[in-house]
Amino acid sequence: EAGRAGQSPSSQARFRRSISALFKHATLAGWVQLNPMTQSAITSKERGGLRAQRRALTREQAQGLVGAARALPEAPEPAGKRRDQRTELRDAVIVLLLVAVGPRVSELVRSNVEDFFTNDGVRYWRIFGKGGRTRDVPLPADVTRVLQAYLARGRPAVEDKALLLSWRGRRLARGDVQAVIDRVQRRVDPEQRRSVTPHGLRHTTATHLLADAVDMDAVRRVLGHSDLATLGRYRDELPGELEVAMRTHPLLRGETAG
């Protein structure tokens, strides 16, 4: 156990599965009388992909967060804050990009204004991802409108090419993005019982795109995964999804209940 202390939960889970398979075979073959792995409890930390607390937001939670982000530009001007200190448009852009596209937080904070371009009337975000790979992701119209408003009147007029800046003109860091999400979430859930992370929103994007039967390879390309196997780890279970799948079974449509 001590030798595996530095390994990730997923690596420990794979090790446990291998040992369990070995002892199962040994028991069936009569080499041992008892499989010790049946008495081995798995702690929540060791579960890895079997997350005790789901990372993805439900559709209602995600839509509530999006609604709060959309309303930010219309919020009344805070007392004591100058117009050039307002960040509502920027905060709306952050949340909408995270929910719509599901980028890694590192990809978001590294993005520059020049990474956004228009082709045939569609606004794209060129994302520079892992391993030097790039992907061009089309943005939904709602996101494009808020982005354009931010670039026109919400972003500080400085020479820095970064997309996301503090009102003082500093490129935002990961912690700044988390602070923005927390502020927007408090508008929906003042108690904020569970913090929503950028990675949780990445899971949310994958989960709901796949739940709406969006092509798996298209979702993979949006998220910037190198293969479909990686995408599977970002797909969280949604309440009632099996019932919905059976009600809309493609081979039984049109039948009436007897």
UniProtKB/TrEMBL annotation:
It comes from Nonomuraea cypriaca. Pfam families: Phage_integrase (PF00589). The keyword DNA-binding applies. Belongs to the 'phage' integrase family. Residues 52-247 form the Tyr recombinase domain. It comes from the Bacteria. The keyword S-adenosyl-L-methionine does not apply. InterPro entries: DNA_brk_join_enz, Integrase-like_cat_sf, Integrase_catalytic, Tyrosine_recombinase_XerCD. GO terms for molecular function: DNA binding. This is Tyrosine-type recombinase/integrase. Keywords: DNA recombination, DNA-binding.
